[in-house]
Design brief:
The chain has 292 residues and is of the alpha/beta class. It is built from 11 helices and 9 strands. It binds glutathione (GSH).
Length: 292
């Protein structure tokens, strides 16, 4: 029996974008996502059964649709023969008190963590969903996808997700990159609000375990090659929500500074005009490791 219901199939850059829906145990609700299959994964005559996968984690207020529709990652993914998974950013419709009161917490703002606070701990488990339940379900059903070759990227809150999931799970992902990631959530308003709500004020150890700058400071794994793009015209960067310099400094303190490539892109903002401009570089960065 299929785990996923395919609610639409859309031709895109020679491949197919599938709109999928499945019941998730970790988030206690139906989850929607998009899966881009490049031509090598859709042609029935293709002998290639080993299509690597790039996971793209979206930012605050997004669903799996934002980047699938206007990130233009599919063009390069099609050329390279890489599938892309665009998951949602939180559980939806759980009815938890407070989940719909603001755009930067709760619905659309799961922060890729497993919550421990009352009300949220039951279904706000995006860490387990992305690292475990979703890949198991996808690789169980889509036989052409190669579950041993997975990379991760993301934007803003999703960039925080990509960096932390990569750094917390050495070897699980072949590479990581990020667009304007929240690099030091324990020191910015978005992160502090989310971590207070999902972990509680008293759980500073958990806060640090999900902070990319804290994690890179302790990195003991293979040499890093992390690509980060941030626009100098990004208002959230100006408001000190992104703090990429803190990540670079922490990597330098740990002696792994050469493994972090931060590109400050002049004038670019936080939007999908920025992501679509540099998307090719990020898919190529992933492909370099996925196709090795
Ligand atoms: N709703 C927020 C903006 C939220 C926002 O910019 N979200 C980013 C991710 S952090 C995004 O990708 N939004 C969706 C889009 O641009 O398509 C505001 O009014 O300031």
């Amino acid at each position: 029996m299929s785990t996923f219901e395919t609610t639409a199939t859309i031709a895109s850059f020679g491949g197919k974008l599938l709109k999928l829906k499945h019941r998730a145990k970790t988030t206690k609700c139906d989850m929607n996502l998009n899966l881009y299959l490049p031509p090598s994964a859709t042609s029935s005559s293709s002998k290639d059964k080993n299509v690597p996968v790039l996971i793209y984690l979206s930012g605050l207020t997004c669903t799996g649709d934002n980047c699938a529709e206007k990130g233009f990652l599919q063009r390069t993914a099609s050329k390279k023969g890489v599938a892309i998974v665009y998951p949602d950013t939180s559980p939806r419709g759980l009815g938890v008190k407070g989940e719909d009161e603001s755009w930067d917490f709760g619905t659309g703002a799961g922060f890729y963590v497993d919550a421990v606070t009352e009300g949220y701990k039951e279904g706000y488990n995006m860490y387990s969903y992305i690292t475990d339940e979703l890949p198991k379900a996808l690789f169980g059903q889509f036989e052409k996808l190669d579950g041993s070759r997975v990379s991760i990227t993301g934007h803003s809150m999703g960039g925080h997700g990509a960096l932390t999931l990569f750094l917390k799970n050495p070897g699980k992902y072949k590479s990581v990159s990020a667009f304007s990631p929240i690099c030091n959530p324990i020191n910015c308003p978005w992160g502090q609000k989310a971590f207070k709500g999902y972990f509680g004020d008293d759980k500073q150890d958990l806060w640090k375990e999900h902070d990319a700058s804290e994690l890179v400071r302790k990195w003991k794994g293979d040499p890093l090659d992390i690509l980060i793009d941030v626009g100098t015209g990004d208002n959230f960067y100006k408001q000190k929500q992104i703090l990429p310099e803190n990540f670079v400094d922490a990597a330098k303190e740990a002696g792994v500074g050469e493994g972090v490539k931060l590109r400050m892109q002049p004038d670019y903002d936080h939007s999908y005009f920025f992501i679509s401009t540099f998307g090719e570089d990020h898919v190529e960065h992933a492909a370099k490791y996925l196709l090795k």
